[in-house]
Design brief:
Blueprint: H1 17-51, H2 53-57, E1 59-61, E2 64-65, H3 66-98
Antiparallel strand pairs: 1-2
Helix pairs in contact: 1-3
Length: 101
């Protein structure tokens, strides 16, 4: 029969409630900041489409309007960039606050 090692809680490293709460508050603030930026950029596209005729009528490149180029290409690059930036910053924040580097 296989022997099991006993778990020694005294030698394990634990995060305190205060540390976890601080990380939660910092992550919440970071999430709300990035969420607000994403929401504002996303809201800007239809607002410009309704209020600015040049945005949807003026051809920029090969007959494509600025609105089409933004939605078809630049918007996808924006949300990929914001996702990578958020992930890197959130991971760094957690490592700094919990002291794991």
């Amino acid at each position: 029969m296989e022997e099991r090692e006993e778990w020694d809680a005294a030698n394990e490293e634990f995060d305190t409630i205060e540390e976890v709460d601080a990380v939660f508050r910092a992550q919440r603030r970071l999430s709300l900041t990035y969420g607000l930026v994403f929401f504002l950029v996303t809201l800007t596209i239809p607002v410009l489409s309704v209020t600015s005729p040049w945005w949807v009528n003026q051809p920029i490149w090969g007959g494509f309007t600025l609105n089409y180029l933004l939605v078809a290409v630049l918007y996808q690059a924006f949300y990929l960039l914001i996702a990578v930036a958020y992930t890197l910053q959130a991971n760094r924040l957690e490592e700094e606050l919990l002291g794991r580097e």
